[in-house]
Amino acid sequence: MGEPSEAASSPAVPADVVLRLCEVSKAFTSPAGTQVRVLDGVTFDIRRGECLVIMGGSGCGKSTLLNCLIGELQPDAGRITYKTRDAAEPIEITQLDEASLDRIRRKFGILFQSGALLNSLTVEQNVALPLREHTELDESIIDIVCTLKLEQVRMLPHRDKMPAQLSGGQKKRAALARALALDPEILYYDEPSAGLDPVTSATIDELIIDLTRKLNVTSVVVTHEMDSAFRIADRMVMLDRGRVLRIGPRGDFERIRATPIGQLTSREDKLINQFLNGLPGGPLTDTEGLSEFEQIIVAGNY
Question: Which of 86, 90, 166, 95 is nearest to 126 (CA)?
Answer without folding.
Answer: 166
